[in-house]
Amino acid sequence: MAVEYETLLKPTSQARRLRANLVVILAVAATLIALVPLVAVGTYVISQGIGVINLDFFTQDPPGDLSASGGGIRNAIIGTLEMAGFATVISTPVGILIAIFNTEVGGRIGAGTRFFIDVLAALPSIVVGIFVYTLVVVAQGHFSGFAGSLALAVIMLPTIVVSTEEMFRLLPRPLSEGARALGLTRWRTYLSVFIPTALSGIFTGLLLAVSRAVGETAPLIFTSLGNNFFSTDMSEPMQALPLLIYRNALNSAFPAARDRAMGAALTLIAIVLVFNLLGRWLVSRRRAAGSTAR
Amino acid sequence: MEEAQMATATDITQTPVAAQHTAEFDHSLPDAAVVLKLRNVDAFYGSRRVVRDISLDIARNAITAIIGPSGSGKSTLLRCIDRMHEVVPHARATGLIEYRGIDLYDKRIDPAAVRRSIGMVFQQPNPFPTMSIFDNVAAPARFNGLVHGKNAAADLVERSLQRAALWDEVKDKLHQSGSSLSGGQQQRLCIARALALAPDVLLMDEPCSALDPIATLQIEQLMADLRANYTILIVTHNMQQAARVSDRTVFLTMGEDGAGYLVEEGPTGRIFTQPREQLTEDYISGRFG
Amino acid sequence: MTARTQSPLEIPRAPQRSLTRGLLREGDLLFRLLALIVTVAAVGVIALMMVDSVQTAWPVFQQFGIIGFVTGQEWSPAFAIYGAWPFLYGTLLTSALALIIAVPIAVLIALLVTDVLPPRLAQPVAIVVDLLAAVPSVVWGLWGLLVLVPIIRPFEHDVAASLGQTIPFLGPPTPGPSYFAAGLIIAMMVIPIIAAVTREIFASTPRLQREAVQALGGTRWDVVRRVVLPLGRTGIVAAVLLGLGRAIGETIAVTMVVGNNPLVGGSIFSPGYTLSSVIANEFNEATETLHPEALIALGVVLLAFAVAVNGAGLMIRRRFERSAGRGR
Questions:
Q1: In whole angstroms, what is the distance from residue C73 CA to residue C263 CA?
Q2: Which end of chain C has fewer CB atoms < 10 Å from its terminal CB, N or C?
Q3: Which residues pair with B232 in a beta bridge?
């Protein structure tokens, strides 16, 4: 497609200048429009939720009846952390090994697995929930925190694979050649050279994956189901922050439920933000240091 | 660029490829003094030949320099010796490379083991960034099962660093990162790391290109010291360095077919003062390359 | 093989080490095998889940036929009649609405970040826009339910009362929760994705082409119109497809604002339902005959769409990256 250079040789007219500025105005306007909901959500949740949060809120469990006031979200926080933690334990080694596989195996097979992982990344999370339901919940005969964390692990997996693979790709070739010339075997090279060098990047990918997993509701609805009581048993249904928010929001006609949902939402956003911003900060630090440390 | 080179080279352009003259093989070295034998070595990237029919003897406990213009296959040849060439996809080498009587390309040979006996130092110093100076030297030896226990490792590190003329400069900061050193120090660290595996051949691929003149001098001095106990093969595009440092010189150049071939080799003094080939004389006097 | 001379060195020469393949080499083989097994297992388990789900849903497809199920307009669990069309319609409509809103905004944001703002400002703006994606779906839904829907209800009412009189598609009813509300919420979640991908596309515009236009006296708009947009056209399509893929999968936020009405609403302001939200809502109370299987069948339909849309988006993006790499 040829760029029409000739038409540009006319002198800059008022009209053209206006058009150029119009673009800027539109672009700025669009950005501001997009940011309005972000600010709106943030301020709403903070303003509505801050009054609800106190120490009791974190140390007590919710009442059996959603419309009753009082209680807290302890079981949801513990459940979220437990399931996310377990999901991390499952998905991290698997993700790193898949990334190693993709890096070492080129050609069509490597491209195939990479494509599979990319499609997996884009799957609706509710579909992932259905998958785990049919495979695990049906087989076990009951809902469980384990099924929930498996669903979260599947959701986290693509992020970990992609960011680890990216890190391996960015490793300088002299590093690989130097290790090889010293007679190091491939597994030793990955274990003692590649992974430690790529570690901060891998960790960043992990943080971003966790921040996503912690906020997911749909895959948990029919895997871990939710639980009104406090439980750390992964083989039992388990509560999670998003689930608690969801159920209370559906009952938000009751002020107590509404308040609980707000406080929980604020807590959830805080957790997600911490992971997210931590991840981004690590990326920027690595980028700054990367140019000097070679 | 290759055309320009070819234009200034002498009769070669008039000679059809098949009749291209490969060097008379200089059998002047007695067998006992030979540590590496190369016979009819070719190297390919896919179907493209980059090194043609090279036969050489490499003398033990000597420094042999491989010189020649860009594209003459010097580095490729070097990498064939420690089986690093084949690491690139679709790259392969044919012919015989014999090390102490063992055919290095025999099917039963483990390339990783070859690389433990024949060490390599690269153009760009490449210490492991996440390891301390100590670990950089000790870890590869440890991974290869050559040293066990903290005391043995500490000993090995000290000896290797001393052998690489780096010990005094780093003995107080062994646990700092390898990348905190200057370029010349990093290169000596890489040499120490390679020496820790107790190879007896050391391949050096333009080891001073990325270093300043002072660091270069230090490395050259180091090579002279190492010669007594190691065989050193150095690829360099710096003719003065080759003349200064080496005992024997090998001159490669790129042929019409794009593959590097051996023009002449022999004792450094003779190569530089009384070369037998016109091409060699042209290169040394700067008429091309 | 000549025996080594005993060297007077301090570094003892290791005895001639065996050059033949040893255990360490086998260790390498084990490693490759491990990576292979884990990868195959992971891919296999996930593929198995897919197959399992399709199998579970199969009786429903058998009973109504695949086409029959997808186009079936009636969803009555009590009578064991299941048709996906109301939900498919809802998914398509809400996604379309979301894209109509999100794509222009996202493309403009991408332009702002790559072509208008200086790098020092562009970075933080890009980060803040990306934060939109960090807000969990359930929080969007909570805010949508309690804040957005009440706010837009009068707007919906006004539009329905005016334009809606001539265009039924924009007419009543306007209870609040609706396709339109869902479309709005989805747009907010999809903007950062489309913006991020489009940003990459624009950033990869060859500098040579940009500078050619600038050197001839082109304004910023000229550069955008003549170079960035045309060259990035394919990439934008890929970005839109990826955004669409995300849009059709949005569940929780949609459930809270879409109205949950399993009928095809006549107007964008009618309450409706989407594939994902009906599954979320009805799954745990699905006790009727074939009800759970029908919901899983809806999931399979959703899966098929998601794979098709995202697969297409990914392939177009790959093709774009490859041709951009060749410096077209």
A1: 8
A2: N
A3: B63, B202
